[in-house]
């Protein structure tokens, strides 16, 4: 086709071309700001609540001042003065309560909305890419970013919604300082203007250091989780090789490694905790001494001193809270960096694919003729290893082509080009003459189905699993049953306790062969024109293998089939056999033609297979 082609290897080159992006934190704030209709009232509520909070100590101080004079005042005067001041305090409390509830609930809602949007965008943009993207980034990394990193950002924000944390703490420090300075004038400057910035700088430094260390601990934790995840999934392998001790040792090493960071974090946290305490005591003592000296010198009254005492407490707690906030912000910052890095990579990869997709035509009706035109390929994750070189072949509609050859030769890779898991590095794969990369996935996926050796079923009922074959449509029960019948699965499904509603989970008591037949039914729901099969049924017992084989033979009729053949009986019935070796097709022809080629690759393979097993249905 005449479209401009940009393949995956160019994606790396594309990335530097993008305009420099703002910092992840800023991008996140921009996202949050999209909900400004919720955020603005929330911020106003926070401001009012903070005003109330800093006014309280002043009102309390006034009560203390009345108490100090109570003995010298007439009883009724003292009582009414006390009650009036207490009444004022109650009103302030009520306003603060209302505003706090408003602030917390609105911020929570807006954060949830923004993070949900971010999660959905990440998932959508990630899924849009072909498998090269997943090889490049790593599935665990993607999963970690979409699930954990987003949770970390959310928890950091949630944890900072209380009075003495985050925004409220900062507002209280600023408002409180302004109030104190307005009450004491220049006289209070050495106490509030001098002491607070020193303590605040120290607190911020410690908070930042803690945040960095916490992120390092989290990164190591992720490595351990990915290790455990892999080993537990592959527990059969571990057992089969008696590798329990070795795995124990490997985990020990990872844990040792993580412990170093964790210890550093522990020490740093302990120091912050200690410093915070001592900081509080020290500020209070300084305040009392300086304030006392000022009272002695007649610069402030006892009432002013009393009013500001409560505020010193608020200030201390708020500064302590700011230190935790900075720690949380640094942690959230590291997660935001991963989140936006993934988003940018998904976008860059997607953009490259979009250029290829640009000539798609959704109305296309396909007959299923497949052609490989000089296809070369390397996996994006291993650009140095060329896997296919100049592969040319064609399959006419309804034909069955068998791929044979030694393992590692590139058979699965050729199949992955037809299922469009990967795009060719150069050359093209066409269906009915249309470049596969220019067909929207929605269109092509209706025509092409894959049945592989170890099919995956998702947790859910058997019916849901079969209907997954047509994910965007309501699949009727009749269609599910038709597909299951075609796949030789109907009979066993109806015998299960809940029939088609039986829930499949890895623990459920459904055999490998049955699982395979459910997967075949799933790929038949959409009545595909093109079938890509990996024939290996070696994991099955003979009886299941025979039933699955029967199902496969039935579904192959009247369809274009590309099969990675493992049996001589299959290659015999194939319309054409392609012998794949080192990424090239080295022999091509019918069974008889290839068998007649003395000393050819195929003939050698067939001879060794028949000699080994001695019958025509044996495995090759
Ligand atoms: P076959 O199906 O004939 O056994 P494959 O197509 O699976 O061969 O593999 C061909 C080559 O591609 C092998 O060298 C293999 O290591 C490599 N390969 C397969 N899958 C990937 C992948 N996802 N990433 C990188 N290299 C891969």
TrEMBL record:
It is found in: Membrane. Its main location: membrane. It is a multi-pass membrane protein. One of its GO terms (biological process) is oligopeptide export from mitochondrion. Signal peptide: none annotated. InterPro entries: AAA+_ATPase, ABC1_TM_dom, ABC1_TM_sf, ABC_transporter-like_ATP-bd, ABC_transporter-like_CS, P-loop_NTPase, Type_1_exporter. Coiled coil: none annotated. It holds the Pfam family ABC_tran. This is Probable ATP-dependent transporter ycf16. It comes from Chondrus crispus (Carrageen Irish moss). The lineage of its organism: Eukaryota, Rhodophyta, Florideophyceae, Rhodymeniophycidae, Gigartinales.
């Amino acid at each position: 086709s005449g479209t401009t082609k940009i393949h995956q290897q160019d994606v790396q080159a594309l990335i530097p071309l993008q305009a420099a992006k703002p910092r992840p934190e800023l991008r996140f704030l921009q996202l949050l700001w999209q909900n400004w209709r919720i955020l603005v009232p929330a911020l106003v509520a926070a401001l009012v609540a903070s005003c109330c909070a800093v006014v309280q100590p002043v009102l309390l101080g006034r009560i203390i001042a009345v108490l100090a004079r109570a003995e010298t005042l007439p009883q009724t005067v003292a009582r009414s003065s006390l009650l009036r001041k207490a009444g004022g305090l109650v009103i302030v409390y009520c306003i603060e309560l209302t505003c706090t509830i408003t602030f917390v609930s609105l911020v929570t809602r807006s954060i949830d909305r923004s993070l949900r949007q971010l999660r959905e965008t990440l998932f959508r943009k990630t899924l849009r890419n072909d498998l090269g993207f997943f090889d490049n980034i790593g599935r665990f990394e993607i999963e970690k970013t979409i699930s954990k990193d987003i949770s970390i950002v959310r928890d950091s924000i949630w944890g900072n919604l209380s009075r003495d944390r985050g925004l409220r703490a900062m507002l209280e420090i600023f408002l409180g300082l302004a109030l104190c300075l307005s009450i004491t004038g220049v006289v209070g400057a050495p106490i509030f203007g001098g002491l607070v910035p020193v303590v605040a700088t120290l607190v911020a430094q410690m908070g930042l250091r803690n945040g960095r260390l916490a992120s390092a601990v989290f990164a190591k934790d992720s490595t351990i989780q990915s290790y455990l995840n892999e080993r537990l999934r592959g527990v059969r392998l571990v057992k089969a090789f008696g590798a329990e001790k070795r795995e124990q040792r490997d985990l020990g090493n990872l844990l040792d490694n993580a412990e170093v960071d964790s210890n550093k974090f522990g020490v740093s946290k302990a120091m912050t905790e200690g410093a915070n305490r001592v900081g509080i005591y020290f500020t209070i003592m300084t305040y009392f001494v300086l304030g006392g000296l000022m009272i002695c010198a007649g610069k402030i009254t006892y009432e002013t001193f009393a009013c500001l005492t409560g505020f010193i407490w608020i200030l201390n707690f708020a500064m302590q809270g700011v230190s935790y906030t900075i720690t949380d912000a640094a942690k959230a910052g590291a997660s935001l960096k991963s989140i936006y890095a993934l988003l940018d990579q998904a976008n860059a990869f997607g953009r490259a694919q979009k250029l290829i997709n640009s000539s798609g035509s959704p109305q296309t009706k396909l007959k299923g003729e497949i052609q490989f035109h000089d296809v070369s390929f390397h996996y994006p994750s291993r650009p140095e290893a060329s896997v296919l070189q100049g592969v040319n072949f064609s399959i006419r509609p309804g034909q069955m082509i068998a791929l044979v050859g030694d393992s590692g030769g590139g058979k699965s890779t050729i199949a992955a080009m037809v299922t469009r898991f990967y795009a060719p590095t150069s050359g093209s794969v066409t269906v009915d003459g249309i470049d596969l990369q220019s067909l929207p996935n929605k269109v092509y996926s209706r025509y092409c189905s894959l049945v592989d050796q170890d099919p995956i079923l998702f947790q859910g009922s058997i019916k849901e699993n079969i209907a997954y074959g047509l994910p965007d449509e309501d699949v009727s029960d009749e269609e599910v049953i038709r597909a299951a019948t075609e796949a030789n699965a109907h009979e066993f499904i109806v015998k299960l306790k809940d029939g088609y509603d039986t829930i499949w989970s890895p623990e459920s008591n459904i055999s490998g062969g049955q699982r395979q037949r459910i997967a075949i039914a799933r790929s038949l729901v959409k009545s595909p024109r093109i079938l890509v099969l990996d024939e290996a049924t070696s994991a099955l017992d003979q009886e299941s293998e025979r039933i699955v084989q029967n199902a496969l033979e039935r579904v192959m009729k009247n369809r274009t089939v590309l099969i990675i053949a493992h049996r001589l009986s299959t290659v015999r019935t194939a319309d054409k056999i392609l012998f794949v070796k080192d990424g090239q097709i080295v022999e091509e022809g019918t069974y008889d033609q290839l068998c007649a080629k003395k000393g050819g690759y195929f003939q050698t393979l067939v001879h060794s297979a028949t000699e080994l097993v001695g019958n025509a249905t044996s495995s090759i």
